[in-house]
């Protein structure tokens, strides 16, 4: 399965996180653990790609993010293989990815040696979702192996609705007195907190 992802992101303080959580009626929170992969030579990072296996309560998925061909800001192509949770756990225990699906095909197209992909970091996120006319609002609290924690606001949007969604997101930041801060992606943050356990 492949789809184009367009989203806005901003890091939050704990207070901003709590204020947004109290203001909006999010769906019940759920947990997911992301386990990130790359080669020893950072072959994925060099091509601005990201690879993870994500564990949910009852199932799992493997996702590869690649830059959109047009290189428009905020846009990525996501390729995902759905996995049974037991399969995903076996793969992780063996420090491997699933090699039979769509993700493996895209990796081969980018000349990535699948056998060289190994676990580089992991993090567990408590996620809250809210569907709005402007897009899917996501409120994340992420914990890392060194017991640090960060907070993030995301909005996944329809590119056809870009201006309306952008205006909504900017207004939300203003209303909650949130400074616009460039966001390092979750892989980079997980790596930073994985190597300083």
From TrEMBL:
InterPro entries: CYTH-like_dom_sf, CYTH_domain, Uncharacterised_YjbK. It comes from the Bacteria. The lineage of its organism: Bacteria, Bacillati, Bacillota, Bacilli, Lactobacillales. Residues 3-197 form the CYTH domain. This is CYTH domain-containing protein. PROSITE patterns: CYTH.
């Amino acid at each position: 399965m492949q789809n184009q992802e367009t989203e806005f992101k901003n890091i939050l303080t704990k207070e901003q996180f709590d204020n947004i959580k109290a203001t909006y009626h999010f769906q019940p929170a759920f947990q997911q653990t992301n386990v990130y992969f790359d080669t020893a030579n950072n072959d994925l990072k060099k091509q601005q790609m990201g690879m993870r296996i994500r564990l949910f309560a009852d199932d799992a998925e493997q996702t590869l993010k690649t830059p959109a061909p047009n290189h428009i800001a905020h846009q990525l192509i996501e390729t995902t293989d759905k996995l049974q949770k037991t399969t995903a756990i076996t793969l992780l225990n063996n420090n491997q990815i699933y090699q039979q699906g769509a993700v493996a095909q895209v990796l081969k197209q980018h000349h990535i040696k699948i056998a060289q992909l190994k676990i580089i970091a992991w993090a567990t996120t408590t996620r809250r979702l809210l569907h709005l006319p402007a897009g899917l609002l996501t409120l994340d609290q992420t914990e890392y192996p060194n017991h640090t924690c960060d907070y993030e606001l995301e909005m996944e949007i329809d590119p056809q609705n870009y201006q309306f969604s952008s205006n909504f997101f900017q207004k939300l930041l203003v209303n909650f007195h949130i400074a616009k801060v460039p966001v390092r992606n979750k892989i980079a943050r997980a790596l930073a907190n994985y190597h300083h356990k």
